[in-house]
Predict the 3D structure of the following.
Amino acid sequence: MCREFGLRKDADEFVDLKAPACGSWQCPECAPRRKRALIAMVLDGRGTRFVTFTLRRSPGASPDKAADFLMLSWDVFLKWLRRHHKGHEVEALSVVEMTKQGWPHLHVALRMPYTSQAILKKKWEQLTGSHQVKIKLIRQASKVAYYFAKYIGKAPARFGKHKRYFMTRKWLLNWTRAEKHRPLLGEARWYRVDGTIIEAAHMLVSQAHWPDVISERHTRLWKPGHWPERAYGL
């Protein structure tokens, strides 16, 4: 769950208080945001194939051990796929999902040249002993969103210490990340404030700061001499 303490950025004209997001897939506030971000990453990669890799269950094996074997097999499979298409682009975004029996399987969006399903099945069976490989040709980006919204309707599963999803280095095409702000010499930095946002806001308001509640998890306190126009009723 998201934490209750806030962060304070003490600038010359205002103080910012924010409740940091926990980023957990189990959090009712963060999980929908993470799902939307994951589907956006899939769309940004403009995949041409949607492939599902499944393992055959073996007696005595645990889901975590099966996940170890699945990830190792996928790593070897991807290296083989790049050698098979030498000189061509092969990029992927992979998502781990749990079956109804609690077993891991892998959904992969691939951006690569045409490869027949028979070849993929044969290689996967050589590596894992399982021939369960489903492949769909994707011609429209909307279909990519449909497939991933369908298969990732719930939070991606996590087995052991493996990530829920991972991608190759050049999968994202147009993704832009906000640059980290580095405070200049003498510029105010971020500080942790004990207690909740309401308690911190009450403390600062008592010092004649004017509060501007932007959202339930974000409060901006304007200092005297820098109040916004609405503070004057304009």
